[in-house]
From TrEMBL:
Transmembrane segments: 23-40
Organism listed in the record: Streptomyces ossamyceticus
The entry's keywords: Endonuclease, Hydrolase, Membrane, Nuclease, Transmembrane, Transmembrane helix
Keyword Transmembrane among record annotations: yes
Domain of life, source organism: Bacteria
Single GO molecular function: endonuclease activity
Ranges where the Restriction endonuclease type IV Mrr domain occurs: 86-197
Keyword Transmembrane: yes
Protein name: Restriction endonuclease
């Protein structure tokens, strides 16, 4: 029976070709075009799925790295006025955190490290504002440039949700860096201001930003 049916379909097709060769050609072209379009859609769909999977994996890895690297490291006791030139960069961060604690901040944490996205010290000021500090332990000849400020400015408010963003250095700032900081509302503390903050003759960095 199957052979008879197939034979009948073949005869019908042959008859259609003889009677309407133009229509058969059109139908054949449409069929080929539909097949090509289907293959393209399947290829695009597979590519989109692979891209979405890659983005999900990258986002997951970034979130894991941020969660891991921003865990506050164990604090070590550092003298508030240790003579900054004798410190390591890590000890300098601890010294800045000690200054924050001395001046009434709560929740002081040193979170600097790989993947810190610009935050070295975070704290809550006595008036309840979140302060995020980046520490640059530089020699006198190495000033903080605009790229340093731009990297910090890209994360301090949007990522770390700072009410007050501060960049503290043992050195100084270039003019473009100071201009960028002023435009973005970042408090710059150079070596001279750091010494004034340390000995109590100058203001705390967050006092430069009035409460909103």
């Amino acid at each position: 029976m199957l052979i008879s049916v197939l034979g009948w379909v073949a005869r019908m097709a042959a008859g259609a070709v003889e009677r309407r060769p133009g229509w058969v050609s059109v139908l054949a072209v449409i069929g080929v075009a539909a097949l090509v379009g289907l293959r393209r859609r399947l290829h695009v769909a597979r590519t989109a799925r692979r891209a979405a999977a890659a983005l999900d994996e990258a986002a997951r890895e970034a979130a894991e790295e941020l969660d891991t690297d921003l865990i506050p490291r164990q604090r070590t006791a550092v003298e508030v006025d240790p003579g900054y030139e004798s410190l390591t960069p890590e000890e300098f961060e601890e010294a800045v955190a000690a200054l924050c604690e001395r001046d009434g901040c709560s929740g002081v944490e040193v979170v600097g490290g790989t993947g810190d996205l610009g935050a070295d010290v975070v704290a809550v000021t006595p008036d309840g504002r979140r302060v995020v500090i980046q520490c640059k332990y530089y020699g006198e000849a190495n000033r903080v440039g605009s790229q340093d400020l731009q990297r910090f400015g890209g994360t301090c408010f949007t990522v770390h949700e700072a009410d007050v963003a501060v960049l503290v250095t043992t050195s100084d700032f270039t003019a473009p860096a100071a201009e960028y900081a002023d435009q973005c509302g970042i408090v710059c503390v150079d070596g001279e201001k750091l010494r004034s903050w340390t000995d109590g003759s100058g203001p705390c960095p967050w006092e430069a930003v009035p409460e909103s």
